[in-house]
């Protein structure tokens, strides 16, 4: 059996927390060794292993211990107890600006980061052109990084990390600050590295990215491993938990764009914002009041502003008024080809026999690329409909069934 590239055993990280700064000094000077702190366990007995070539998603709400775990894997933090065995060279994007000297230019920081990863200046020279091209920050590459925006930091950090041939790439929410083009570029490169056998640890609050990009996932809850295994299954468990989580930190994905009314299907007006690659302009439903088993038809109009988005996909999701997710297929999973070239397009989504029972429902529509990892435009509650029947069954969905009297 192949030796794991990362092996973690009974990892514990404790912090001393003080109510006020002066308590730290009081405790240090106390003759009686009086404690002024209380212990906080960021990680408590975490154990798991990662195989070479795995893409491991790491899930957990803020404060669950994800970043602490990654910092210990990279050696930035030391564990209170437990063991970490890493068999390979790590490139990590943990915090924007980490490892950057703010007074150095972007170009100088490339060499600095390479040095910290064990590469000499001569070894970095052949990589410089590819790093600068990927970062795509123009003349800012020769400006001090203290004048960089968070997006520029992310671009440069990612460009360095993926061009030093790492055995392990760690990405902690770095894609969250980038625009759609940057996210697409990064995901493409991560997929390329994954195909070459690079092990990837990927932290994202966008759980659909984890489900679609990673083959495995681990859920860290309050410093312990709550679940580990197939990415899709772990994400489902995590989402079930988050539905009942009350803190208000829901990410809004709607994009506002002024679309001309009554625009013909042939006309296309390019948006002023170059980061908008595609947009859902309209959606129509064949009617608003249904009976169970009737035919539902949804027509979706969307614009593509790029010459082509070859991996474009369209998804439709049905929800209850409480936002319980009922069903959400997409064209990628069902191997349906849709128009991907610049222009105005229309796709019809049909459920021949609607199996839902009585109630009110809403429809979301989204367009994505990279197998659904990057959201280009998402329209929540774009349509709604109702179902009413004479009484013939109870529940949410009508399931074909049989009765058989056996006695």
UniProtKB/TrEMBL annotation:
The lineage's top-level taxon is Bacteria
Q: What Gene Ontology molecular-function terms does this entry list?
A: ABC-type transporter activity; ATP binding; ATP hydrolysis activity
- Keyword check for Repeat, yes or no: no
Q: Give the matching Gene3D superfamilies.
A: abc- transporter (atp binding component) like domain (2.70.50.60), P-loop containing nucleotide triphosphate hydrolases (3.40.50.300)
Query: Does the record's keyword annotation contain Transmembrane helix?
Result: no
- Which InterPro entries does this UniProt record tie to the protein? AAA+_ATPase (IPR003593), ABC_transporter-like_ATP-bd (IPR003439), ABC_transporter-like_CS (IPR017871), ABC_transpr_TagH-like (IPR015860), Bact_Polysacc_Export_ATP-bd (IPR050683), P-loop_NTPase (IPR027417), Wzt_C (IPR029439)
Provide this UniProt record's keywords sorted from A to Z. Answer: ATP-binding, Nucleotide-binding, Translocase, Transport
Which residues belong to any copy of the ABC transporter domain? 26-247
What GO cellular component entries does it have?
A: membrane
PANTHER family (UniProt xref)? TEICHOIC ACIDS EXPORT ATP-BINDING PROTEIN TAGH
Family note: Belongs to the ABC transporter superfamily.
List the protein's name. ABC transporter ATP-binding protein
């Amino acid at each position: 059996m192949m030796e794991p590239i990362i092996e973690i055993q009974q990892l514990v990280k404790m912090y001393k927390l003080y109510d006020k700064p002066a308590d730290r000094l009081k405790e240090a000077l106390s003759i009686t060794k009086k404690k002024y702190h209380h212990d906080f366990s960021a990680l408590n007995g975490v154990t798991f292993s990662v195989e070479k070539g795995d893409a491991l998603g790491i899930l957990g709400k803020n404060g669950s211990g994800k970043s602490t775990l990654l910092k210990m894997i990279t050696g930035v933090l030391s564990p209170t107890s437990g063991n970490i065995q890493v068999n390979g060279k790590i490139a990590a994007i943990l915090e924007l600006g980490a490892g950057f000297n703010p007074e150095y230019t972007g170009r100088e920081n490339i060499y600095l980061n390479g040095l910290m990863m064990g590469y000499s200046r001569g070894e970095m020279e052949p990589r410089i052109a590819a790093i600068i091209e990927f970062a795509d920050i123009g003349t800012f590459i020769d400006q001090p990084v203290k004048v960089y925006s968070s997006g520029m930091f992310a671009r440069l950090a990612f460009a360095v990390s993926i061009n030093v041939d790492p055995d392990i790439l760690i990405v902690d929410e770095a894609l969250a600050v980038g625009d759609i083009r940057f996210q697409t570029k990064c995901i493409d490169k991560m997929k390329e590295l994954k195909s070459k056998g690079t092990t990837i640890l990927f932290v994202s609050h966008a759980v659909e990215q984890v489900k679609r990009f990673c083959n495995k996932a681990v859920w860290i809850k309050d410093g312990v491993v709550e679940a580990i295994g197939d990415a899709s299954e772990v994400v489902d468990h995590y989402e079930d938990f988050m539905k009942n989580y009350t803190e208000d930190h829901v990410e809004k994905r709607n994009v506002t764009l002024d679309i001309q009314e009554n625009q013909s299907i042939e006309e296309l007006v390019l948006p002023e914002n170059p980061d908008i690659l595609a947009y859902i302009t309209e959606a129509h439903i064949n009617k608003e009041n249904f009976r169970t088993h009737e035919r539902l038809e949804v027509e979706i109009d969307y614009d593509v502003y790029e010459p082509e988005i070859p991996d474009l996909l369209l998804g439709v999701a049905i929800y209850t008024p409480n936002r319980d997710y009922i069903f959400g297929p997409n064209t990628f999973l069902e191997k349906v080809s849709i128009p991907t070239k610049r222009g105005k397009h229309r796709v019809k989504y049909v459920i021949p026999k609607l199996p839902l029972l009585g109630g009110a429902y809403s429809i979301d529509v989204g367009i994505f690329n990279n197998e659904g990892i990057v959201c280009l435009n998402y329209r929540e509650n774009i349509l709604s409909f109702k179902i009413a029947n004479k009484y013939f069954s109870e529940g949410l969905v009508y399931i074909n069934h049989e009765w058989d009297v056996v006695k």
